Amino acid sequence: MGLNFDTTKPIYEQIIDYIKKMIVRGELKPGDKLPSQRELARKIEVNPNTIQRAYREMEILELVETRRGMGTFIKEDESMVITMKIEMAREAVSRFLEEMNSLGYTEEEIVKFINNELVNIKKDKEN
After folding, report:
1. Which entry of 47, 77, 112, 116 is 20 to 30 Å from 13 by CA?
2. In angstroms, rounded to a whole number, what is the distance separating the alpha carbons of residues 41 and 47?
3. Judgement on whether residues 25 and 70 belong to the same structural domain of the protein
4. Where are the extended beta strands (E) located within the chain?
5. Total domain count for the chain?
6. What's the pLDDT tens digit per position in 25-37?
7. Mean pLDDT score of the chain, rounded to an integer?
8. Which domain holds residue 24?
């Protein structure tokens, strides 16, 4: 797991965000087993209590379920994945638009900028 922690946000929240992204990208699928708390703590070099907090919060958010004696699994709910993907996309777009507005861009300029960048990305992929 390639995690570079941001000092402005609690580590357990960053772990949750990372796991959500893995789910949305399809790297983790509904029903997949997560590493044990101790194993994940060793792997990303954080305190096991931090992982425990992240797993507990994900259970509250109904992203995962703990099966006694078996471990923690991604909840088997495809609609959750779709909903999470939409929510994460909206948050990303909202942050982007707030930043562009703070830089003084108008709505038309933002749309033009995005279209130009999409063209550039397409060109880069073709090369």
Report:
1. 77
2. 6
3. yes
4. 64-67, 71-74
5. 2
6. 999 999 999 999 9
7. 93
8. 11-76
